[in-house]
Amino acid sequence: MAKVAVKNIRFIYLDQSFFFPDRKELKLFLLQLFRTERYKVNKVTYNFCSDEYLAQLNEEHLNHNTLTYIITFQYSGNKEPILSEIFISIDRVKENARLYNCSFWLNYTKLCFTVRYTSAVMVIKRNKRYR
Predict the structure, then answer these.
(1) Helix (H), strand (E) at residue 74
(2) How many domains does the chain have?
(3) I need a labelling partner for 61 at 20 to 30 A (CA). Which of 47, 67, 71, 116 fits?
(4) CATH of the domain at 13
(5) What letter would DSSP give residue 39?
(6) Is residue 118 part of a domain?
(7) What predicted TM-score, i.e. pTM, was given to this entire model?
């Protein structure tokens, strides 16, 4: 059952790639979070990309001309299983690690912890789902 469910969470490297350990554990954690909140998941896709890629999305879809770590798109309707995409700039992770004098992995881990919980909760709240 877990093997099938893990396919509902996807990690895609768009124009940036990096070593990403413990992907399966992260997917299981995210699925457990949704299950704990009593929501079903159709598919949640995490897209890892460059600043340029994310800036273009930010401008095209949100009319913002700023750099950001993350953008989320919700495609499912009310009370439907969650279908969303999350775009994360690896360049921002690296730059902020440098600015705050911490390793890429420490900064990435902080981001992943935040993304794990807040993106899932944001998707749920943005969709105004009811139990």
Answers:
(1) strand 70-74
(2) 1
(3) 116
(4) 3.40.390.30
(5) -
(6) yes
(7) 0.75
Q: What is the pLDDT of residues 7-61, one digit of tens each?
A: 899 999 999 777 777 788 888 888 888 888 788 899 999 899 999 999 999 999 9
Q: Cα dihedral sign for 98, 121, 32, 50? A: negative
User: Which amino acid does the sequence have at 23?
Assistant: R
CB < 8 Å & 24+ apart, contacts of 57-63: 57/87
Q: How many CB atoms lie within 10 A of CB 74?
A: 16
- Please enumerate, as own/partner, the contacts of 10-14 that have beta carbons within 8 Å and a separation of 24 or more: 10/43, 10/44, 10/45, 10/46, 11/45, 11/46, 11/48, 12/45, 12/46, 12/47, 12/48, 13/48, 14/47, 14/48, 14/49, 14/50, 14/53
Q: Look up the domain containing 54 and give its range.
A: 2-126
